[in-house]
Amino acid sequence: MTLPIITADERLAETRGVKAAIFGASGAGKTTLLRTLQASTTLFFDLEAGDLAVDGLAIDTIRPRTWTECRDFAVFIGGANPALRDDQPYSRAHFDAVCEKFGDPAALDRYDTIFVDSITVAGRLCFQWCKGQPEAHSDKTGKPDVRGAYGLHGREMIGWLTHLQHTRAKNVIFVGILDEKLDDFNRKQFVPQIEGSKTGLELPGIVDEVLTLTSLPDAQGELRRVFVCQTQNPWGYPAKDRSGRLEMLEPPDLGRLIDKIHQPLPLDARPLVIDPPSIPAPAAAPQSDPQT
């Protein structure tokens, strides 16, 4: 057996999908983004039953109603994780059981994009399931243990998102609601609307892109829908661009955005390759008077 090294040429030739989380206020037009994707190669993971925004769009859809169904679809889409035991979700045993129920996973080969609408509802389904598990009840009294439920919820959501993130060849787009809140100092901040805090905190480290869909005035003062794509933006919106290819603001067209991310980028063009800042020399310590 030889060392399983993937050569540079092999890695560069691999098909790699974009993993993105898109947040926006209710009514911002998140579901409508489906119209900017190629319908014949997109699978609509409809958790909200809110497809009126894409009424008339010929697109294939799945509609999970429970957290168990969400996990089943995730392992069917992403395949088995060989690192897991057979009694764990997303394991080989879980994948085999789901294939027996749904059939050959090759049926998904026609789709290059999975559009999950929304991660907010997925979090609610997950928390509802978690509240019924033994871990969410006290061993001594049998009463509900909210901390146990939230701990399980965080692990379940991160496991689900991570498994879909490892679906290397497909684009996976998560959309969710963005809340506007005030912190303890009465400063405005934007927070993804996801049950519990763990998922919202760790999600930016899981996906490649975090985008905020919002409306901003153009040069004539007219409001235009845009993607905010970079972390250091003047509005404080959650955003991240791991690809290094996106501008601060991009048109709200997912198809064009994915094509732009897949464009070649020279190594010397990456925006984070910068000269280190100059550090001033420390001030000399005052000398004490030997007579004192």
From TrEMBL:
Residues 281-292 have a biased composition (Low complexity). SUPFAM superfamilies: P-loop containing nucleoside triphosphate hydrolases. InterPro entries: P-loop_NTPase (IPR027417). Pfam families: AAA_24. Transmembrane segments: none annotated. Residues 273-292 are annotated as: Disordered. This is AAA domain-containing protein.
